[in-house]
Amino acid sequence: MAESENGAAAKRLKTDAANDCGDAGEPSSDSLVSDFEISRILRDCAREKIIFIHGKVKDQDAVVILEKTPIRQDTLSELLKSSQLKLQIKNDVYSTYQLHAPAHLNEIKTTVVCPATEKHVKKYLHQEVFLVEESGEDYRNLTLPYISSQSFSVQWVHNILEKKAEADRIVFEDPDPDTGFVLLPDFKWDQKQVQDLYLIAIVHRRDVKSLRDLTSEHLPLLTNIRSKGEDAIQRQYSVPPSKLRVYLHYQPSYYHLHVHFTSVEYDAPGCRVERAHLLSDVIQNLQADSSYYHNRSLAFPMRADDGLLLKFKEAGKV
Amino acid sequence: MAESENGAAAKRLKTDAANDCGDAGEPSSDSLVSDFEISRILRDCAREKIIFIHGKVKDQDAVVILEKTPIRQDTLSELLKSSQLKLQIKNDVYSTYQLHAPAHLNEIKTTVVCPATEKHVKKYLHQEVFLVEESGEDYRNLTLPYISSQSFSVQWVHNILEKKAEADRIVFEDPDPDTGFVLLPDFKWDQKQVQDLYLIAIVHRRDVKSLRDLTSEHLPLLTNIRSKGEDAIQRQYSVPPSKLRVYLHYQPSYYHLHVHFTSVEYDAPGCRVERAHLLSDVIQNLQADSSYYHNRSLAFPMRADDGLLLKFKEAGKV
Q1: Would residue A294 show up in a list of annotated catalytic residues for this protein?
Q2: Which pLDDT belongs to residue B2?
Q3: Which of A111, A152, A251, B103 has an alpha carbon 20 to 30 Å from A242's alpha carbon atom?
Q4: Does some domain include residue A107?
């Protein structure tokens, strides 16, 4: 499954959409939406024009997600010609209007989860985010014991490395057991355009959990990923290294070392400064100090419902 | 003006909207929109549902910007009850629909710039972005001569420090000439809610252009900004340090040292890893190596029309 930050439900929906297109277009007389009674707003993304609502359909818990659709280039002429306009402000060369478009040119994508479990609701509920500063000692005393106790499975990563899964998705492989890796598209990327290019390099070594484990010993591995990853992407997608943002996450979403390659023009999830570490910086830091990532305080964001945050709170670190 | 990444036209529109509300609601019979002939798409932001179009109205150049509006919480009930629905996919507890909403509940905000100059068009045109790696030597040979030759004025910064402008906006000041600074809201923040909190600390010292000039000599300045800035924000806005992302930009948008304080939950422009440097990392790096930022290669993004990019290209560095 390469990397995904989406939870199980979102993945499931994606899969459904791929497998189940036969149903598309079928009209529904028994609408889950019109019977929906709103209880509360779980999350409201004004910038992206998405809203997540919790409520009930005939006494069953339900989540409704409304998302305005992107403006379609192929319907622009019709949209501009056939809409009603109301002038709001005119000043010099600038004017603004309210545009009332015909409904079929201005759809809202609606997703209903019903009956919804507590887990669905929690997944969509806006969570507070805290920035934690983890010293090297905090890592050894709090984080490492926590991630070991959770025993997050990386079997799906091993399946990819052993070609038991997703073998047809691999774009490039260096099989060297010490410095080698496989490169494959992240599931968030539909591979239709390079504007949102997103690939993941997963190392063959199984003894490096994250940035925290890296020392100068791993410099050949990291420089190899950088140069061969960039070469493969240039060959395969004609995207040069100067158009790539290459980075690691801390905390990662799974504890087997991997590197993200995204288009620098793509606002990829997880590319903000508090979670991403540019591979070029990581390499330079390890060249200067082999124990850089063992000793430094590293800041990272955690959702309020993250079990690790609780450990930091119990220890009085947040 | 504190910091703003918006160009003049966007600011102008904001001002117009504030000053010119008297015109709101006036219907237009002579619509600039319906006569608009599309020439090309300047930019298409599918995630944010915005599109920028270049075209002509009666032989005059024009730019039209369409942006779907956020989903309004106060109209949700009406929206769900009065819309037409078409089932797309149903699988287990998940179902998706196309929702056709009444036009007045699903507006598109339309902005017209007419006649538009070449400058308007260039402002809205999508620009390629390149990631440049600048060594310490590149900085001294290419960047420093370039920014000196451009002699970007920071008079407006001096006006703030001298209380000749924006004095009423200052949230906190430490007047110390070596370690002091003023803290004020960034212009991007309307100060209506802390979800998108954004303040800037501007140092009183005038001899530090950017991250590149910092050495261990500046550690008292940086630690002072961090602790007093966090204290002031906690006092004034009840936002604790664990909810703040505190960082510098490289390249900065103006060459007088300043530090950004944003809510960690706010997807602030310029908080991506390729431009932002966490103050906590900067402090640790200078503690370990006073010449860290003199010697390191620093990666940063540049638009294709940036004059500095041309210098790097001429030198064969991109």
Answers
A1: no
A2: 54
A3: A251
A4: yes
Q: Is residue A177 part of a domain?
A: yes
In Å, what is the CA distance from B141 to each residue of B144, B145, B274, B292?
Answer: 7, 7, 22, 18
Q: At what angle do helices A279-288 and A219-237 cross, to 10 degrees?
A: 160
Instruction: Look at B93 and A115 and tell me if their CB atoms are within 8 Å.
Output: yes
* Residue B88 and residue B147 in one domain: no
Last residue of a domain, one of B69, B91, B124: B124
Q: Residue B18, SS3? A: helix
DSSP A140: I
Candidates A104, A258, A277, A294; catalytic one: A258
Tell me: do A104 and A144 sit in the same domain.
Answer: no
**DSSP secondary structure letter of residue B178:** T
What's the pLDDT tens digit per position in A32-80? 788 899 999 999 888 889 999 999 998 999 999 999 999 999 999 999 9
> Peptide bond before B220: cis, by omega within 30 degrees of 0?
no
pLDDT at B318: 87
Q: What residues of chain A, 76 to 105, have a C-beta less than 8 Å from chain B?
A: 76-77, 79-81, 83-104
Q: Are residues A113 and A141 in the same domain?
A: no
Look at residue B52 and tell me if it is in a domain. yes
Express the helix, strand and coil content of chain B in percent, nearest 5 each: 35, 30, 35
Cβ separation of A23 and B243 shorter than 8 Å?
no
CB atoms within 10 A of CB A169: 15
Question: A155 and A106, same structural domain?
Answer: no
With a CB cutoff of 8 Å and minimum separation 6, the contacts of B221 are B178, B179, B181, B203, B205
pLDDT digits (tens, 9 = 90+) for B183-206: 999 988 888 889 889 999 999 999
The domain in which residue A94 lies consists of: 8-124
Whether A70 sits inside 8 A of B44 (CB atoms) is yes
Based on the domain organization, do A16 and A61 belong to the same domain? yes
What CATH number did the domain enclosing A195 receive?
3.30.428.10
Look up residue A146 and give its two tokens.
């926590």
What is the rounded CA–CA span in Å between residue B106 and residue B87? 19
> What ipTM describes this predicted complex?
0.79
* Count of structural domains, chain B: 2
**Which residue type is seen at B63?**
V
Chain B residues within 8 A of A16 when measuring between CB atoms: 89, 91-92, 94
Same domain, A71 and A116: yes
- The single residue listed with the structure tokens 């484990």 is A213
Judge if A163 and A265 occupy the same domain.
yes
Helix (H, G, I), strand (E, B) or coil at A181: strand
Domain end, chosen from A91, A124, A157, is at A124
- Nearest CA-CA distance, residue A162 and chain B, Å: 32
pLDDT digits (tens, 9 = 90+) for B116-139: 999 889 889 988 999 999 999 999
Work out the mean pLDDT of chain B and round it to a whole number: 89
Is residue B58 packed enough to be buried (19+ CB in 10 Å), middle (13-18) or exposed (0-12)? exposed
* Whether residue B29 is found in the same domain as residue B81: yes
Give the residues of chain A that fall short of pLDDT 70: 1-31
